[in-house]
Amino acid sequence: MQYKTSLLNQIRLRKIKKLTRQINALSDTYEGMTDQDLANQTSLFKARLEAGEDLDDMLVEAFAVCREACYRVLGQFPYDVQVMGGIALHQGTIAEMKTGEGKTLTATMPLYLNALSGKGAILVTTNEYLAKRDALEMGQVYEFLGLTVGLGVYDDDQEGDAETKRMVYGADITYVTGAGLGFDYLSDNLASSKSEKFLRDFNYVIVDEADAVLLDSAQTPLIISGTPRVQSNMYDICDQFVLTLGEEEFYFDPDKKEVYLTDKGNDYAEHYFAEESIYNADNWELNRHINLALRAHYLYKKNHDYVVQDDEVKLLDNRTGRVLEGTRLQSGIHQALETKENVKKTKESRAMGSVTYQSLFNMFPKLAGMTGTGHQAEDELISTYKVPVVSIPTNVPIQRIDYPDKIYTTLPEKLYATMELVKELHAKGQPVLLISGTVEITQIYSQLLLQEGIAHSTLTANNVAKEALIIKEAGQLGTVTCATIMAGRGTDIKLGPGVEKLGGLAVVGTERMANSRMDWQLRGRAGRQGEPGMSQFFVSLEDELLTNYGPEWVKKYFKKHNREDRRNYGRALTGRRFHAAIHQAQEKSEDNAVSARQSTIRFDESLRVQRQKIYGLRDRLILDDENLAGNVRQIMEEVIDSYLAENKERTRHQLRRYILDNYSYAFRYFPRALDLDDDQDVKNYLLKLVEEEVDKKGTLLQSEEALSEFYRLSVLKAIDECWVEEVDSLQQLKGVVTTRSTAQRDGMSEYYQESLRSYKQMSDFVKQKIARNVMLSTIEQSKDGKHSIYFV
Q1: How confident is the model at residue 213 (pLDDT cuts 50, 70, 90)?
Q2: In the chain, domain spans
Q3: CA separation for the pair 467, 173 (Å, rounded)
Q4: Running DSSP on this structure, what letter comes out for residue 468?
Q5: Which residues form the Helicase ATP-binding domain (predicted)?
Q6: Annotated binding-site positions for ATP
Q7: Residues of each annotated binding site
Q8: CB atoms < 10 A from the CB of 668, how many?
Q9: Which listed CATH number (3.40.50.1970, 3.40.1190.10, 3.40.250.10, 3.90.1440.10) goes with 231-347?
Q10: CA distance linking residue 19 with residue 32, whole number of Å
Q11: In this predicted model, what pLDDT tens digit does every residue of 679-733 receive, in sequence order?
Q12: Residues 321 and 435 sit within 8 Å (Cβ to Cβ)
């Protein structure tokens, strides 16, 4: 497989290099142009597109123009390897370019070319700082060439401003974060009128740190929350119950991330809560809260998955140590964590809309990405997003020395050995970047550095505002920077005077990460653009990676040899099998992550189909539906037919109640001629009530246009209310079916069956709600002639 991948890469590179030579051949031509003539090339390219040429026809010239503009505006002339990376991005692939190779500048050329179509080009970054920085800096190039630039990072007072967002996404080139784009997509599809919509059809997107965004961040769907639920009073009592459980009363598998009560635990729960069976339908909420408390205590770790700040539980990106501001866990788990940590509980909100990164980015006709580590995940990127990876060579050969791991039996041995290396490097002034996998471990190393009297900077979730400054200084003489995982932070570490002679930046990893891609991202912080550097990882058999995913023999070895009085205490383990165990553990960890992402995709598939249908219907209603009145009439007939089919034996009282609840609050009596046993007679009578109400509202609204808008609002409100219930119930359902595997049932199959049943039920509810909105709504006219509509 590796040989096949390498051969395909060589073939792709051969074609890319040919185009690069053609671009180089035009350098002198565009260098000789005035600024005005160079900028005018944009309008010439657009004219050629209108005349029938496509983007590929002008790739060579457009890249050469943008390259020259980069030099004139920024003083940076893209290297050949950056041009090659840009070509790969235009071709809709993932360009694998090592850290420090200048991916930000690389993206300017394909963004410029694809923006010429007038359909928009988007660059997705991992955080708001990078989006702002790149939009401001690179935006100068696009504006010089006559294109517009949008920044999808908003001030608080702009949030929700459709006009601002319309300008952002209407620009030729837009910079935005992945989460920002996802939430804007969901918000756009909650619009109730054309004036509230701001997104145009997706066209072309480049994702920076592509493996991090498209894979690592894609395990959790983006959810937009709405109205809060009634707060449950079961969180506290279920949390106390879980704290009293013995080891035999629950099952916990850290590998599969599963935790649930055993049979003995079920018996104890029934005794504790004085219930005959906690699995009765009446005890559904109790069962849910017990499972939430179990998950909060055993699946989520403080300072790894979340931190407690300002009496709040805040989620962490465990790759970077960042606080995920504004992001909350759904389905009650966030409230369970708040109960566990004894902080003020927030309201549990309904999910109004949900989308996964997989669904979001697969909506783009052309998807590309940049990363320093892509080939390790190429199979998954192809299967999920249909994008291959192209490895771009470095501009200058890599000089960094990557030393073999140093492996120790216990954590204290590893800590001591790590600190010895840091002290040795610091003593000669070589800058050190000390990287840990979690905030907790980072803080431990920070304390050890303080004890040794070593001045250092600490970069965790708690001081993210100073992040760029801290990183910028990390390559200076004598600097020690203690940090969580660095991949995707996007700020280059530049070496200070005299550092190259000392060996460049030293990257010291305090543990192996969840997958080898993260390790290589960390190594890549040193040795950029041919600079010297080194990387060294320290591992102990107590590290989370090995305790969770290591082979059984490692755990047995640790139990036997974790004494301080053994002869080889403090010495590194040199056997090949220990290195093999680390490799095996990483592979297992990544396999679990892949399985989790595939599970996210499978769970989202049902919702994705439903979402497309609902959002498509909403757009037709908002943007264009000429036969809306006829469609509403048909829906009213279907609702009546459904009622008649389900109520064959109707009484006068029951039909009267149905009319009062759905057609008219003012109904008083039936006409004498009405035959309650004749379906057609009853249907004609109900349709007559509909026509009378519609005529009445048509008279009030005074125009066909106003009546059509009334219909549109009636339908939209019905769809939105029912869709919010559907999304929320499917979120709740997902949390329930994951526990059904314990009863030898296929949770995914049950989820699909249940979601299909739920969708059919929702479709019926939507029609009934439309009928109620049309019939029972109230229209009032103000003195200035404006109408207000009040729905039930």
Answers
A1: confident
A2: 2-222+358-391, 231-347, 401-588, 625-790
A3: 27
A4: H
A5: 84-228
A6: 82, 100-104, 492
A7: 82, 100-104, 492
A8: 7
A9: 3.90.1440.10
A10: 21
A11: 999 999 999 999 989 899 888 888 888 888 888 889 998 998 898 888 878 877 7
A12: no
